[in-house]
Amino acid sequence: YFLSSQYTSMPTFLDKMMEIVPRALPNIPESIHNTIIDRIVNAGGFTSTQELRYVKEDDFADLLPLVRRRQLLEVFQIESKVITVNLEIVPSSTTEVSSNCLSIISLSGIEDSTSASQPVRKSWPESFKVPWDVMPAEIRTATSSCKRPSPGARRQMVRIISDEMRKYELNPTRAQCLVVCRNIVHQYPESFADQRDNGQLLDSGYTSLLIQVKNRIENLNRASSFHQHRSASHGQKRGPTDIYGCTRFQPSLPAEETEETMETKHQQLEGIYSRDGTAGAERPEVKKLMDSTFYLQRSHINVVPTPTIASLKTKWPYLFSQKGLYSHFELLTDIPVLRSLELAMEECGKAIVEMFKTKPTNARMKEVLRQHDDDVELSYQVIHLLLSHFSEDVSGLIVLADGYATAADLESSLSIPATPRLILLGETGSRFQRWMLSLEGQIVCEGIQSTFVTGLASFFSCFYIFNLQYQEEAACTLEFIQRRFVGINPEKGTKAAKGKKRRTVNSHVASLLRKLMDFQWDFI
Q1: Contact 152/412 with Cβ under 8 angstroms?
Q2: Do the Cβ atoms of 428 and 403 come closer than 8 Å?
Q3: Residue 124: left if φ>0, alpha if ψ -120 to 50, beta else—which one?
Q4: Beta bridge partners of 46
Q5: What pLDDT score was predicted for residue 103?
Q6: What is the predicted pLDDT for the residue at 110?
Q7: Where are the alpha helices (DSSP H) in 11-65?
Q8: Cβ contacts of 94 within 8 Å, gap of 6 or more
Q9: Residue 482 CB partners (closer than 8 Å, separation 6+)
């Protein structure tokens, strides 16, 4: 084989330790792995696997029981005897590939591997340069004065570091993130190390920073994957999932309108917003203009490649108001979403509660029934019962937040999922003061009414307005809302995730619909 590089790629000692320790102790928590590696590589001063034979049981007496220490040392003894072969690529004097292309420079054993090994290129996490020059002023001041920055400034730093790391790899591994975070903490321990009040180091010192960076990267990748689904899952045309349940998915230009008159009305809306802001959503003139530009809104939403939610909000800010979402959904589906949900709760909300009281599905449902009293809004209780029945996590639909938080506070302090979430702000979920709606990791709507059903209507409408699939975490609950409460029941298709075995009606949803119908006959 002809090799074009000058040197073979050799793993670093740190890379080897990240592979050896988890292999030796597969059932030990990762935090312990990290501490062991840190003690060997940094505190212990070890530089090669051959030196692992000098590790003693007592070195980890505070971390591991005796049998695990002996297990680890046994692996270390084996690794210390491994022979490494270093190859240098010698350019061939001819164009033919011959056996002379490779010449072995050294066969290194236990004693001389470090001295005889050829130069090894560092992995990108080890050579990663933190862009301190673009950090917030508070971070630069904190590092220069050995002070701790505020949580807000630290979050900004994490964003910058994560963006910079993703230039090397879009989804760096936890081990790669560990190297970067460890180096940052070692460089500025006073500013970023995990410490107790007395200054004592907690664990490895970089655990919290590692969690922040890895969470940020995973959130960015979820958003990227989510956007790719919206923009490319159907190639260069819209598919059945987008059109599902819609009666006017992409209407024709009204006969009395032209592209020019549409754009003129769009500019009028932009002018009103620049003058009145979100308060303009209550004006009758805005409602009339939004309804008459429905064709243009759908054209902008349905264009391929799919625009981001942020760009749509810039073009159509009043679409992201509570009234704007309700109105657009009704024009799109011929269904008044808020009124449909209110009527459904009146018709079968109490029946659902009584049915589950009579025969709870699981222990979690019993807890929901025990916690919720008569003062809790019926729609809130019903949705929690449905989530528990389908064994779906509440966080797949609802996020709880501090009652005094602003939209900017939530975007900076929470890792908001890319898929839609209804955010309830207050002391507890059932005693919330107001709600917000998030999409693609940002707050897109703030409710003007503090009822759960108004937030649920806005939340549900997003899946149809913006051509979204139901998120897997709450897919059954969302389909039940669609079929029983809102009344969308197409003969074909589904909003379920593409990767699953898809039926027109989910079998779990169909089963609950039948049980509810049977119960209602007796309940009435």
Answers
A1: yes
A2: no
A3: alpha
A4: none
A5: 37
A6: 37
A7: 13-24, 30-38
A8: none
A9: 245, 460, 488, 489, 495
Instruction: Report the b/e string of 127-142 with b at 16+ CB within 10 A.
Output: ebebeeeebbebbbeb
Residue 101 pLDDT greater than 60, yes or no: no
210 and 180 Cβ atoms separated by less than 8 Å = no
Q: In which residue are the tokens 């409602």 written?
A: 287
Global pTM reads 0.57
Q: How confident is the model at residue 180 (pLDDT cuts 50, 70, 90)?
A: very high
Nearest to 251 by CA among 290, 296, 301: 296
Question: What tokens appear for 486 in the block?
Answer: 């809102």
Q: Contact, 140 vs 75, CB < 8 A?
A: no
Provide the token pair at 313. Answer: 């909000």
- C-beta atoms surrounding 46 within 10 Å: 18
Adjacent-strand bridge partners of 7? 88
- Which own/partner pairs from 367-374 qualify as long-range (CB within 8 Å, at least 24 positions apart)? 371/430, 372/430
What does the pLDDT read at residue 399?
A: 93
Whether residue 348 contacts residue 480, with contact meaning beta carbons closer than 8 Å, is answered with no
Adjacent-strand bridge partners of 400:
424
- With H, G, I as helix, E, B as strand and everything else as coil, classify residue 372: coil
Question: Token pair 């045309």 is at which residue?
Answer: 237
Backbone angles phi, psi at 279, to 5 degrees: -60, -25
> pLDDT by residue (tens digit) across 400-426?
998 889 999 998 888 889 999 999 998
Chain centre distance of CA 114: 43
Rounded CA separation 308/161 (Å): 24
* Range with the poorest average pLDDT among 111-115, 235-239, 313-317: 111-115
Only one residue has tokens 């491994």, namely 82
Per-residue exposure over 243-267, b if at least 16 CB sit within 10 Å of its own CB, e if not: bbbbeebeeeeeeeeeeeebeebbe
Q: What whole-number distance in Å separates Cα of residue 64 and Cα of residue 155?
A: 34
Distance, in Å, from the CA atom of 479 to the CA atom of 481, rounded to the nearest integer, reads 5
- Chain centre distance of CA 444: 17
Q: Which residues pair with 426 in a beta bridge?
A: 432
